[in-house]
Amino acid sequence: MSRNLAPGDSSERPTGQAMLRGAMGRCPACGKGRLFRSFLKVADHCPACNEALHHQRADDGPAYLTILLVSHLGAPLLLACFIAWRPSAMTMIWTFGAGAIILSLLLLPRIKGAMVGLQWARRMHGFGTPGPSAAS
After folding, report:
1. Where do the TM regions start and end (predicted)?
2. Rounded Cα gap, residues 111 and 115, in angstroms
3. What number of other Cβ atoms are within 10 A of residue 20's Cβ?
4. What confidence tens digit (pLDDT) does each residue in 46-101 have?
5. Which of 13, 35, 33, 11 is nearest to 22 (CA)?
């Protein structure tokens, strides 16, 4: 584990705990401060412990995983509902369309928070550097 640590930083960062805190929308370091300042915008610093969070680089990963999960959950359910009840096409479009939108909006911030927690725990993208002096 010491190969990923910054000089002088020997603290343990449990990955599972950091990802769970991030998924709950909390700071991966302390678990108290809010991770997001709006729906998907990560705060620059934790308001509780002042941990720098601006290093995160989640990019398209959370959106890709959300689409993957929603489609893999929705497709078998759609098929099962069609075989069991044979609803009209418009009923299927409206119910599964609304379900996909709602599920996507619920999962996206949780997946992004977990990804930020993973990056923090693994000291990725600058989360392991002690401060601005490490960049020079």
Report:
1. 63-85, 91-108
2. 6
3. 16
4. 999 999 999 899 999 999 999 999 999 999 999 999 999 999 999 999 999 999 99
5. 35
